[in-house]
Amino acid sequence: MSHRTGSKLIREIIYELDEIKELLQVEPSLTNIEVVERCFEPQSKSHVGFGGGITSKDLKGGSVAKTALLEELKTIRKEMAALLEELNATRKENESVKRRSDNIDKKCEMFKS
After folding, report:
1. Which range (15-19, 34-38, 78-82, 94-98) has the least confidence?
2. pLDDT band at 6 (very low <50, low <70, confident <90, very high)
3. DSSP codes joined into one string, the chain
4. At how many degrees (to 10) do helices 10-26 and 32-40 cross?
5. Distance CA 3, CA 93 (A)
6. Longest dimension (CA), the chain
7. Comparing C-alpha atoms, which of 51, 56, 11 is closest to residue 38?
8. Distance CA 113, CA 7 (A)
9. Cα–Cα dist 51/61, whole Å
10. Residue 88 near residue 96, CB atoms below 8 Å
11. In whole angstroms, how far apart are CA 96 and each of 77, 105, 106, 109?
12. pTM for this structure?
């Protein structure tokens, strides 16, 4: 069995794997890119190996974009709450109209007989 894979010693690879496992046990909420950056230095000049040319900057996004998205989420939730209230009011009105219609139908049947 050789003691190398490519240009790296197998011992180095095992050490790096142990370091990654340790980091994931301590902080399981980290994303893959954050784990890579903590173990192998920030990946600022090269493309991250996810294919399609996605860079770490694309994955992280800026804080400005995050705050804008949070604000948009808040406004959408407010709009959704208003629409749900309107829907409930419309349903109640529909039930009321249906009851009135049923009462009118009953009265018509009484007059017919």
Report:
1. 34-38
2. low
3. --SEETTEEHHHHHHHHHHHHHHHHH-TT--HHHHHHHHH----SS--TTSTT--HHHHH--HHHHHHHHHHHHHHHHHHHHHHHHHHHHHHHHHHHHHHHHHHHHHHHHHH-
4. 130
5. 79
6. 101
7. 56
8. 99
9. 18
10. no
11. 29, 14, 15, 20
12. 0.40
| pLDDT tens-digit map of 24-80 | 898 888 888 888 888 877 766 555 455 566 666 666 665 667 778 889 999 999 999
Characterize 36-52 residue by residue with b for buried, 16 or more Cβ atoms within 10 angstroms of its Cβ, and e for exposed: bbeeeeeeeeeebeeee
- Residue for token pair 């139908």: 105
For tokens 């039930």, what's the residue?
95
Structure-token pair, residue 110 = 């009484």
